Amino acid sequence: MRAAAQDEDERTRPRGRWRMLPWAIVALWVAVIAIAGPSAGRLGDVQVNRAVDYLPASADSTQVAEIQDTLPGGESTDLVLVYHRDGGLTAADRATAARQTAGVAGAHTLTAPPRAVPSEDGTTLMYPVSTTEPGQDDEARTAFVDDVRERVKGGGGLDVEVGGPGALNVDAQKVYGSLGGPLLYTTVAVVAILLILIYRSPLLWLVPLVVAGVADALSMAVVYGLNRGFEVTVTGQSSAVMTILVFGAGTDYALLLVSRYREELTRVARPHEAMAAALRGCGPAVVASSATVAAGLLCLLAADLTSSRGMGPIAAVGVLCALLAMLTLLPAVLVLLGRRVFWPLVPVYGSEPKRRRSLFAAMGGSAGRRPVAVLVTGGVLLGALSLGAFNLPGDLKQEDSFTSRPDSVAAMTTLADAYPGRSSQPITVLAPTDRAGAALAKARTTEGVASAERGRSGGGWTELSVVAEARPESAGERDTVHALREGLDGSHVGGPGAQQMDLETASSRDLGIVVPLVLLSVLLILIVLLRSLVAPLLLVAAVVAVWGAALGIGGLLFEPVLGLEGTDPGLPLLTFVFLVALGVDYGIFLMHRVREEARRGAEPTEAALTALRTTGGVIASAGLVLAATFAVLTNMPLTSLVEMGFVIAVGVLLDTFFVRTYLVTSASVALQRKMWWPGALSRPPAAPAPREPELVGTP
What we know:
- The protein is 62% helix and 7% strand.
- The chain has 699 residues and is an alpha+beta fold.
């Protein structure tokens, strides 16, 4: 008995260099994280989240912000102090407002003394307040807004709110700054629960989760380096998406690798040899799929929007760091832990895996019996769902960009109701100083302008503050901005409303350029990988249909069900890039197996159904994890993240459980060998040469 145990131990113990290699890999990763850790912790310090930081450098409103930095005092922080009582302000209310605003003026250097602007109905007073105090960086702006909010207080029925662009930017910064912890904890919790349910092991789920955390730390350090070395723009949105991708895509790769490793452990005695076989089996498909995802994401470098252009390399870094960790650190840790990591369902060497009735085999069988009918029905359904995109709410306004109501948004709402004929959000015009007088006169006579005043001058530019008659971000204010830009040659027109207009224009331009680029790059990569033209076209068409259907479902639910009153201008582009890249990712896993079965000699129908039966469970698990990680964004306090997370999560689920199962499989069965045209697999195998008859009865 002891001799048999020694033989078993000898048969499974790693030999020579294999014994030290996993330890060396783990040690290398420990060293890398020790070096990268400090940089990862500083990523939040380089985030920018103002609206102007998202815009192209060439945008008119971006030019305004940059020139304002060169004026005396630099960029100003503009607030509006709002005093409101439903039944009408009392004399005591007005005295309180005068005393508190005087306190603000005494504590800070303001560009002008606060002057009350009463509403016609007597319910509201607003005090525009602006400062250019030295050191107006993000921390100083936040400190200024917080101090003002401490000094102006209501009570006894008097409501006091601090609004304006400065307060709105500070509230946005606080929201983005608060995302990191809750986003990470929620993502980890969601992935942990799903892995426990998938693996049914008290230990195994923890391994890929820890490795994903290591990959996340590495990706943050790399992105910090990109920002310092190449000035890649880092926003709260791109950081959040990167974390989601690291845990979502990384867990997907782990599921594929662990599934293949478990399978190999029943055929190979030594864990390190089983892992080597698993890496040979699924490694190429994982590398190819992640490279395709990264290539699709890098197409965002062609975007004009600074935020989208930065999102491309940041998201690609997340995917590649997840790939690197899952193909090096994860295998090393699993080999060191041995078979016991799978307890209580330990794969035994020489055993046969239990054959269970496969849901995907049944689903694939139904698709295989009526492939054309399933294909047509599925296409019609996706097309019908896509029509819901026409019901998407209008462009997202600043006041609707938060899912909760911060003080700045409440102030905007109060001002819009109390001052229907006057904007509370000035339009900023920067005119050449030698033409400032003419520009001011022209601005005052422009249709839609209520008032215009001259401000600071410096560096050859003069600042004009223009107040529109229409409420902020309304059609009337847009018309006024257009009129100012057309009528004031040589001047730049900016401010919050103009920034939103430039954001929408750039988003529309990016959609027309980046979408074809993504489709072309992904299609070319698929043609090279699959050695076919038809199969790549089918996969690309499928993921585009999924994107349209997911966006349509968003249109049906955003406003009526979720209460979201605007659509982020960048939503169509970003969801397209992610859904196409990630959808093709799963398509590669499935079609790679179909091609493998076909090369072994299986008939087209058999190859398609076998691939679905053998990979469907793993792909479904991976899809659930990825959809769940993106769904975490729907719990964030920003409308743009909620919408993005919803559309991508719905799209991944559609792709995983409907398109992959029915439509792609049905198309494979219906097209037969034409699926692989013009590759070698599109031609029927050569018939074996006839055997020569044997001579019988010859002596």
